[in-house]
Write a structure and sequence with these properties.
By secondary structure, this protein is α/β, with parallel strands linked by helices. Helices cover 26% and strands 20% of the residues. The chain is built from ten helices and 16 strands. The chain has helices at 132-149, 174-178, 180-192, 207-217, 243-246, 270-282, 294-299, 306-311, 342-352, 373-386; strands at 5-7, 29-30, 45-48, 53-54, 62-63, 66-72, 86-93, 105-110, 118-123, 152-159, 200-205, 231-235, 253-256, 263-265, 328-334, 357-362. Strands 2-3-6-7-8-10-9-11-12-15-16 form an eleven-stranded mixed β-sheet, sandwiched between helices. The protein has a three-stranded mixed β-sheet with strand order 1-13-14, with helices on one face. Helix 9 (342-352) links the parallel strand 15 and strand 16. Helix 1 crosses helix 10.
Length: 390
């Protein structure tokens, strides 16, 4: 009996439509904290407060934690890429993510020389341990500089845990629980960086698109009264739409793709399983997986964790995402991304969404889409076109 099970995704009509959310934020609360030793003067400190935990049967099922921001010296953010105008360290509490010292996340803000017309969050790939411009190089740097010149505020977030960034556990529900850290960080940007009466947008590549998808789907940042985003662009992902498919042995699940590829397998492969999925459950990276390493163990043909992995996916059966969003969601994939699960997994989520979406293929783009001139140009074009209030 063949192990290959083909699934046909519903044909996705490529619709470009701007669906703009009313920006409603949680009122900021003040918090006092000892100034960072990196700060030249006692800085202002800002807090975003919420409760934590995912509960089945409510909407949204997961809640953000508490973020306290401390302004740092610019040198903390300037190890390459776009020049920042301010640099912040965030301490997150109330999330399942283990605390990282001195900060759980570092935020680089680059402001225009004129009044800001909107704020765009940029999220790097994999586990988010680099700034977007540092990971994707000169094409991304040029894109961000161009957007800042056009009047946008650029915000880049990186996560400081060296084990596996925002995907460092242990957490009972793996990435679903740990998405509390990026979701809380994005809420902090909304409450303390975003200018009044301007749109908040986001783009993330591969692992960065996963942060966006969980934030919109399970943490309520893309619909209802807790929505904060006007527009989001997921590039090369999100790959965690169905982790039970991605963690399955090679070739077990295939799905329709775009960019002329026909069908792609959805398996992540052993390296991604060991470094990007298992640490969410175990808190460590191992190259000798055993039954405690969910993704690697299932990839090695045991298939004992599939039910749990489905629970913890973006398209969770226990914590299902809404099918419709007030956020205008765009997807972009690279025509040279021929061997990753990014396209089929990304389309798993895209085909589930009933509100209008835009899906494009950049023929010469690879998996690191913002690192290519054509990919960066497409992302910039989408952001300048759709990151606008009505």
């Amino acid at each position: 009996m063949s192990l290959i099970s083909s699934r046909n995704l519903v044909s996705v009509t490529i619709v470009v439509a701007a669906i703009v959310a009313a920006l409603e934020g949680v009122p900021p609360a003040s918090a006092q904290k000892s100034p960072s030793p990196d700060s030249p003067l006692p800085p202002p400190n800002f807090m975003v407060t919420g409760t934590v935990g995912c509960t089945a049967g409510i909407s949204p099922p997961c809640s953000i934690g508490t973020a306290t921001g401390t302004q740092l010296q610019l040198s903390s953010c300037l190890s390459g890429g776009v020049t920042g105008t301010t640099c912040w360290g965030l301490n997150i509490s109330g999330c399942p993510n283990p605390a990282t010292l001195p900060y759980d996340a570092t935020v680089k803000v680059t402001s225009p020389t004129v009044a800001s017309i909107g704020t765009i969050i940029f999220l790097s790939g994999a586990t988010g341990v680099q700034f977007y411009d540092q990971e994707f190089g000169s094409a991304a740097v040029s894109m961000i500089n161009s957007l800042v010149s056009a009047g946008y505020t650029a915000v880049q977030i990186m996560y400081d845990n060296t084990v596996a960034g925002w995907l460092t556990g242990p957490a009972t529900d793996g990435p679903l629980d740990l998405a509390c850290l990026p979701s809380t960080s994005m809420q902090w940007v909304h409450d303390h960086i975003l200018g009044s009466g301007t749109p908040l947008c986001a783009t993330g590549n591969s692992g960065g698109s996963q942060q966006i998808a969980y934030a919109l789907s399970q943490y309520g940042l893309g619909s209802g009264t807790t929505s904060i985003f006007t527009m989001a662009e997921a590039t090369s992902g999100p790959e965690l739409s169905r982790m039970d498919y991605g963690c399955a042995p090679a070739g077990k699940y295939t799905a329709c793709a775009i960019c002329g590829f026909g069908k792609h397998q959805e398996s992540y492969g052993l390296t991604i399983a060991e470094t990007g999925i298992d640490p969410a459950y175990t808190g460590k990276v191992t190259t000798t997986p055993d039954s405690s390493d969910p993704c690697s163990y299932d990839y090695l043909n045991h298939m004992t964790w599939a039910t749990q992995l489905h629970h913890d996916s973006i398209l969770s059966d226990v914590y299902p995402p809404p099918p419709s969003f007030s956020t205008d969601i765009h997807f972009a994939f690279g025509g040279a991304d021929a061997h990753s699960p990014a396209i089929p997994e990304g389309l798993d989520w895209a085909s589930f969404i009933t509100s209008a979406t835009a899906i494009v293929c950049v023929p010469t783009g690879n998996h690191e889409l913002p690192s290519t001139s054509a990919g960066a140009a497409r992302i910039e074009s989408d952001l300048t076109t759709y990151c606008k209030l009505p």
